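Researcher: Structure prediction, please.
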Amino acid sequence: MNALSRRRFLRGGLEVLGAAAVSSRLTTARAAAAASISTEDLVPSDRGAMTLLQGAGCNVVAVRGPEGSLLIDGGLAANSDALLAAATAATGNARVNTLINTHWHPSQTGSNERVGREGGLIISQEVTRLYLGRAALSACYDGSYGPLPQIAWPKKTTRDTGSLEFAGQHVEYVYLPAAHTDGDLYVHFPERNLLVAGGPVLGDRWPVIDIRNGAWVGGLLNAYEQLASVTQPDTRIVPANGGLVTGAEIARRRDIYQKLFTQLFVYLNKGFGPDDVVAAHPLKAYESELGDPSRFLAGAYESLMYAYVPN
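Model: Predicted structure follows.
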């Protein structure tokens, strides 16, 4: 692929990509079952203190509190009623006191409107709040998403870091620039040795880089370097989807992405296009573990081209 065709590819690439509190535990359990919401206690010695809920569109963590629960992410809007019912059943809290969005994609922000209408505080990175106020296209879903009604917008935001005390725990939320989107946060519970990683981490497959919205492979690598620096090998990591991973696995994947990052520059200097990179199989050793990397490789390489190939 020569320089001219790369420029044409860059111009065409984006065009191609765009195309009520529950009254009883019995009711909540039935609603959760209907949407196939599964639950897992994250603190087995204190049942309901922290619960992983899966099946709403993303992994959601619910934390029991004295004045309502804390939720990390809110699933898809279509699954919000079932998710919040499951959270009530798990924590015993009839309402959500605080909701943290790890980023602005529909699978993370589908409960914002209901939580906002019921008086809950919504927290996010500043860019996430801005995105929720307009229609946005993405490399991660078809069509556009938003704008959400103003009641669904985060009322508290951070540009870098923030923290709160919740149910006697210190909770930190920290910006991961240009990793999965351009508004990613991770949420850390240091006293529990548990971290909710958000979009940059998937449990059993390759991440998706939203190249339409500021994310790139260098940002993803930086995110893994940051996550590895704040975790221990035995830290439990809640990914955006899939089963829990450990801090040791985060460090291992950081090393994989570091090696890939270097190799992508080799391909760039050879004039490769995205199809050439996919065909070179630089992640072949990990395909049996994390699946077909074609989409990830193409997105990672395109993001590098956007950053380094002149217009």
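Model: The radius of gyration is 20 Å.
Researcher: Thanks, that helps.
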